[in-house]
Amino acid sequence: MLKICTGNVHVSRGLLALMLFGAPGLGMADTRMTFQPPVTEIASRVSDLHSFLMGIIIVIFVAVFGMMFWAIFRHRKNLGHQAKPFHESTTVEIIWTIIPALILIAMAWPAAKLVISQRNSAQPDITIKVTGYQWYWGYDYLDQSFGFKSKLLTPQDQIQNYGPNAPAKDAHYLLEVDEPLVVPVDKKVRLLVTSNDVIHSWGMPAFAVKQDAIPGFIRDTWFKANKIGIYRGQCVELCGRSHGFMPTVVKVVSQKDFDTWVAAKQLAAKATLFEPGKPITKEALIEAGAKVYANNCAACHQPDGKGAGPFPALAGSKIATGPKAGHIHIVLNGKNAMPSWKAALSDAELAAVITYERNSFGNHTGDFVMPDEVKAAR
Amino acid sequence: MTTLAHEAHHAGHDGHHAPAGWRRWVFATNHKDIGTLYLWFSFAMFLTGGLMALGIRAELFKPGLQFWQPEFFNQLTTLHGVIMVFGAIMPAFTGLANWQLPLMLGAPDMAFARMNNWSFWLLPPAALLLLISFFVPGGAAAGGWTLYPPLSVKAGMGMDLAIFAIHLLGLSSIMGSINIVTTILNMRAPGMTLLKMPMFAWTTLITAYLLIAVAPVLAGAVTMLLTDRHFGTHFFSAAGGGDPVLFQHIFWFFGHPEVYIMALPAFGVVSQIIPTFSRKPLFGYVSMVYATCSIAVLSFMVWAHHMFMVGLPLDAQLIFMFITMLISVPTGVKVFNWVATMWQGSLTFETPMLFAIGFVCLFTVGGFSGLVLSIAPIDTQMHDGYYVVAHFHYVLVAGALFSLFGATYYWLPKWTGYMYHEGRGKFHFWWSMIFFNVTFFPMHFLGLAGMPRRIPDYALQFTDFNMIASIGAFCFGFGQLLFLYNVIHTIKGGVGKAPANPWEGAHTLEWEVPSPAPHHTWETPPDEALVRKGLRAQYLEGHDD
Ligand SMILES: [Cu+2]
Ligand SMILES: [Cu+2]
After folding, report:
1. What CATH class is the domain B3-11+29-540?
2. How many beta carbons lie within 10 A of that of residue B495, not counting itself?
């Protein structure tokens, strides 16, 4: 198993695979020709049903095209074959209408049973709300009352390899997040899926789960993973610029590990951005803002604020050193490839990060933004 | 034979009433001129959309972004879809219908000659709107050819241009369809009853009805988008009491019949070509007609199979799954009939026949992957992934496009008066056949393994198959220049003059007029005796043995 693949290795493997066309993937790293190994009962049944269908399809295909190629090889004019002008047979037409219909019934029966089990989300052990944002996922553990956002971890410089010296890509390139969804093994997990902006779709191939996230509506789906491990999927509904960059990652753990994790999360949720009771100072804002920046903005604008490729530098930027209103406006509402942070960050977080940007990377505006100003600009 | 003499005599003074120069094309009312315009237009669009496809495949050759930013990549996928569907495939079939219907039915022209002119000349402005949209602020529409809101509501003005382009294209389609229906229903030669007309006329007729039914639905959907975008309506916004999923219902109520709008004429073409080169009548003519009609009716009742993941109620999911599966019955009947037509024939394999056989094989692959997709729980794994991309390219490229290539080689002698170069035609076929499969077959595996569609960059395990697909796409794409070469070579004289009927096994009326078909044909309807001779040769009447 190759863990880290450079582009060049892949070029040659691609060509090799082309030569061996029909058997690419043989002995090659992670290339798969079929479903990811199923980790839920539903996914196993989907996989079995698919194999059953493919069996029938291949038999029909071989039979029909066997006939056709027989004709192609035997009933040729250059072999002196004379055409026999038969052109009608009601019996034959009835036969080849009824037989396929019967085969379809044989397929529809198990399919219908599977749909019914797949849609039965009743009596979950745990319920999690999943929210699609442009372009990351939010997970809220409704019963445990905490939540977090789950964002792509792959650094921009691995993605933007326009130049010749792109760094090597991680093994889980584009399928890694800062904080995965954590669930206990062998428990029925119900997901309530919705969206904050456009339609996204939460998909997890190993679970045979896919549910569109529709703004203004909540739809549900569920899974019961039967194996501890980390599973990876992606957003599967075009949702704008970074549609390809919002993976779904689920970490399935034992009930005990899950409980420990939940306890830690609940504790962290109680801690707030600023120390309660104290007045909010410029220094406090900058300190908190640095964290918000590292978690949300550094991926594009870079940790040193110097920007990269299409992402402008904030160091010395007209907006980040100009009037506060313009700065607040672009962060709140976004612009082209710059996302809107209205929904993702609180007033306090926004005030902190904007203050940080105005007083770091060599910017010295000296002013600061209070949460109330952000609130007023919303 | 009197008709023939008349035609030949008439051809002589064509020049008098055909306007020359650019006026001939801008003011064209002759079905052959308009057909030619349609065909060249669609070919230009095919190259444009194809260039975009190569842009997509170049970016996907390896992981990481190397050519485009994601915004532009999304514009490429969107416009590739819109242009290929509305600019290339649909106009190409209208072009074929324009050229062939009057010739095959024994009519002097299409029923509404001036409307015909309009329905063509709406297309270039629409295409221009789409191309210009790349240069407006925010770029072209980037929400996929399906234009789902809220993404499309939030998009820049490229979306407005796309909406207007779709309005124009829809209008054009409706006018073209009305023309086709009227011509077929009213202008057939004496003796040619509905159940004796060529299968191509049947499938075109049903297609035209489908278009008249659903083009206004699409126009309605995009108009609602437009008012949501600019006039404060909330059809598709939950915050205002609307529902984003409503758009998907309306869109696919258009969209699924649209699939058959692109497939049925292809069925018709293939049903002309296979009997010709099998030297046998089409097997099961009547059942073919019934199959076409039932496909058309069923196509209105399956739209939600594109929406299995939106969270439909259980019952709806089951019903849409069952009806979708049912469509494979009439489709299967068609394939069986084609195979039975070839069975015990006296087969030859000229280029049109090769494309027809390629069509039957690969369309069936696409049909089977469609059957797999119709199973809702399996669709959970495939929906919005590369399996779907593979599926619809099997039905649209190996399906519709291959049939169009076949049709072109089949009728080119009639259109130009010259024979194409058979060896180069065959080479074009094999090249296309091989590289089509190199491009699209691996996409099945990508889809099964979970690669989503419409992404500019992908995880490492998808690399191998993407590379193969990209290499295939470039070979397939550049191979089509050979097609262009073949056509131009034929127009310029090809390998020699074509007789009125270059195909031993062809018995339809278009082969009764000289090659090239004179500017005006069948100004007096063909003799009933002549019509009946052809019908008897096709075993559509009078063999009481
Ligand atoms: Cu997405
Ligand atoms: Cu459909």
Report:
1. mainly alpha
2. 14
Judge whether residue A19 has pLDDT over 50. Answer: no
What are the structural domains, with CATH classification, of chain A?
9-119 (1.10.287.90), 126-155+173-269 (2.60.40.420), 282-377 (1.10.760.10)
B246 and A CB contact within 8 Å: no
3-state SS, residue A378: coil
Of the candidates A14, A158, A174, which has its C-beta nearest B468's C-beta? A14
Beta-carbon separation of A199 and B467 below 8 A: no
**How far is residue B517 from each of residues A62, A217, A253, B273, B413, measured CA to CA in Å?**
42, 60, 75, 19, 9
The tokens of B422 are what?
Answer: 């058979």
Yes or no: say if B443 and B469 are a contact pair by the CB < 8 Å rule. Answer: yes
Name the residue with tokens 């002589």.
B12
The more confident residue out of B18 and A350 is A350
**Span B223-247, mean pLDDT?**
94
| Whole-complex ipTM | 0.91
Amino acid identity at A352 = A
Q: How many percent of chain B have pLDDT more than 90?
A: 89
User: What's the pLDDT tens digit per position in B102-130?
Assistant: 999 999 999 999 999 999 999 999 999 99
- Report CB contact under 8 Å: A234, B450: yes
Q: Rounded to the nearest 5°, which phi and psi values hold at B100?
A: -90, -35
pLDDT of residue A272: 67
Between CA B251 and CA B222 the distance in angstroms is: 9
Residue A306: CB atoms within 10 A of its CB come to 15
The CA-based angle B351-B268-B536, given to 5 degrees, is 90
Which residues in chain A have their CB less than 8 angstroms from residue B314's CB?
115-116, 119
Residue-wise pLDDT for B55-103, tens only, equals 999 999 999 999 999 999 999 999 999 999 999 999 999 999 999 999 9
Alpha-carbon distance of B260 to B267, in angstroms, equals 10
Q: Which of B471, B266, B229, B261 is nearest to B356 (CA)?
A: B266
B387 Cα: distance to centroid of ligand 2 (angstroms): 14
Q: How far apart are CA A53 and CA A49, in angstroms?
A: 6
- Residues of B designated catalytic: 80, 109, 145, 172-173, 256, 258, 260, 271, 305-306, 331, 334, 453
Interchain CB contact of A53 with B (< 8 Å): yes
Q: In the beta sheet, which residues pair with residue B299?
A: none
Convert the pLDDT of each residue in B356-375 to its tens digit: 999 999 999 999 999 999 99
% of chain B residues with pLDDT over 70: 96
Query: Domain-by-domain residue ranges, chain B?
Result: 3-11+29-540
From B263, B37, B310, select the one nearest B149 (Cα to Cα).
B310
Cα separation, B532 vs B322, whole angstroms: 43
Q: What token pair was written down for B219? A: 């126009």
Residue pLDDT, tens place only, B333-354: 999 999 999 999 999 999 999 9
d(CA A55, CA A58): 5
